[in-house]
Amino acid sequence: MTEQSVGEQTRKPPSESGSSVGGALIAGADVSSCSTKTMKVGLVIPDGAMGGAQRIALELLSEIPRRDVVVCAPRDSQFGREVLASGHQLRDLSLPKFADERSVFGFLKSYMRAVRTLFEVARKDQVTLLHSFVAFGAKVVAPVALLTRTPALLSVHEITTPSSIGSWRSRFHRWVSAIVFIRVTAVSQFAAECLVSMGFDRDRVTVVHNGVVRGVPSIGKTSCRSALGIPHEALVFAVVGRVERLKGQTVPTSAFAEFCHANLGVDAHLLIVGGAVQSHGRRYAARIAQEVDSTGLRERVHIYGHRDDVETFYDAADVVLVPSVEADAFPTVVLEAALSGVPAIVSNVGGAPEALVDGVTGFVVEPTSECFALAMSKAADPNWREAAGLAARRHVEKRFSRKEFVERIIEEWCRCTGPGAPPECTAGS
């Protein structure tokens, strides 16, 4: 992968005056009169389960004026409730995954209902841009964008290669995107290169890394450990994320056993935080529990399931583990942990390595229990952890700020709807 890769040719440094959210011009785009004041964005996220993309969407909404965005998402979901709590407009739109429907007819009925809902939103709310914030939403956005001649933007937080989602779905995704979406943002360089390898137009794809801020103030490591019943002086590793096979939670359970056997004098604990959304995830969760029991370390491995207060676990941890065994586009866990001053050990699969500096703010290793155990032994050095934690926080605050993320997204909105947009971008105006 070269230094000048996907999306880099379109990104320019901010002007001296900078750019602000919600009205000011966005640096680097040919949008001399474009701002969020001149547009109404329909942000489409038909899956309301609180995953990484949904959390990042909330970061975006926190910086965008409420009048400028209408969110299309399931009302009766955690994400929908968070949107309503933020004061933003919400239109009830949901689309179950095909595998979760009992029949093809049931899926088609749900799909047509979602398309009809979005069509009404585009017309009644006078939407000037449809933004499918997840690839899953593209199938709903595509027909509505064509029928209403509304410009459309796609954000890809997932890996949609044939090996990840199947050949037919991958080809359909590429075909729809080529016809409908004027621009495509990828959450990492890895994800962008995957899109280009599938045949996406390199000039339409740009990298917009996620940006985060800490959600709640820290109450301190000691208080967090007391609340969780973890010894104050223990060495604590944490795995935070949705429970499913690609996240690889079985890797750190085995690695933790190896670490404990190699470091008998260390009082180490492993926290596994995250819920299973679908049936295959629940089966995987059961497998994790079985493997924990087989290690004989049940008293030192703590399984919490889904939790909203993830900052508590970051604050309680000394090191966060991100053991993806399949390509994960860009796990935000690395950024969130860094804001708590916690370094990470990540697998070299997917976009996670882009979030840290190997050896400085964490370690990048093969997704095997042996490699993770070795890195965990290195991270047992308290001096290294202190230095790496401070470096990780500075790195994320400088490279992955929410402000820059929001500015980059608005820049893409402006590229699709502003004066500098191609003719087809303004077809609905």
Molecular structure report:
Strand 4 (129-132), helix 4 and strand 5 (152-156) form a beta-alpha-beta unit. The two termini are 39 Å apart. The chain folds into two domains: 8-211 and 401-426, Rossmann fold (3-Layer(aba) Sandwich), CATH 3.40.50; 221-399, Glycogen Phosphorylase B (Rossmann fold), CATH 3.40.50. The strands form two sheets. The chain has a seven-stranded parallel beta sheet with strand order 3-2-1-4-5-6-7, sandwiched between helices. A six-stranded parallel beta sheet has the order 10-9-8-11-12-13, with helices on both faces. It has helices at residues 52-61, 78-86, 104-124, 138-148, 162-165, 167-180, 189-197, 221-228, 250-262, 279-295, 310-316, 333-339, 369-379, 382-399, 402-417; strands at 41-44, 69-73, 89-92, 129-132, 152-156, 183-186, 205-207, 235-240, 268-273, 301-305, 319-322, 344-347, 362-365. With 429 residues, the chain is an alpha/beta fold. It is 41% helix and 14% strand. The longest helix is centred in the N-terminal third of the chain and has 21 residues, at 104-124. It contains 15 helices and 13 strands. The protein is globular, with a radius of gyration of 22 Å.
Percent range for β-strand residues: 5-15%
Shape descriptor: globular
State the strand order across the main sheet.
Answer: 3-2-1-4-5-6-7
CATH architecture of the largest domain: 3-Layer(aba) Sandwich
Poorly predicted sequence stretches spanning 5 or more consecutive residues: 1-5, 8-33, 422-429
Order of helices and strands: EHEHEHEHEHHEHEHEHEHEHEHEEHHH
CATH superfamily of the largest domain: Glycogen Phosphorylase B
Total domains: 2
CATH class of the largest domain: Alpha Beta
Helix segment tally: 15
Oligomerization status of the protein chains: single chain
Largest sheet: 7 strands, parallel
Helix content: 40-55%
* CATH topology-level name of the largest domain: Rossmann fold
Return Rg in Å: 22 Å
**Could you tell me how far the N terminus lies from the C terminus, measured between alpha carbons in angstroms?**
39 Å
Computed structural class: alpha/beta
Average predicted local confidence, pLDDT: 86
Number of strands: 13
